[in-house]
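To whoever is on call:

I kicked off a structure prediction for a single chain this morning and the downstream step that reads the tokens threw a length-mismatch warning. I double-checked the sequence; it's 102 residues and nothing unusual in it as far as I can see. Pasting both halves so you can look.
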Amino acid sequence: MWETFTVLLLVAGVWLAVDTLRAREVATRAARQACSQQGLQFLDDTVHGGTMRFARDGEGVARLRRVFAFEFSDDGISRRSGSVIVLGGRVEALRLDPYREH
């Protein structure tokens, strides 16, 4: 009995890790594209995780909602923050802190 529970727990942990990596790739791609479109520099070329919760999508299905943070620069010197919210495997929202347009 305990062996089955341990195996199921291990499988769930591996699934969560793989799913989180996929969501992180989606968030990184979205942040990079948003920065490129706005003429901003995407710093560190990555996002980092913040919160993870269950939420319902438009069809009412419970999915994991993850919030990823990243930094960008509008002038190559200052660092500004942004965030990407990924629900399931799709970008739900992307936010950039205010910056000065050139």
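Update from on-call: the warning came from a stale cache, not from the record. Cleared it. Sanity check on the structure: The longest strand covers residues 62-73.
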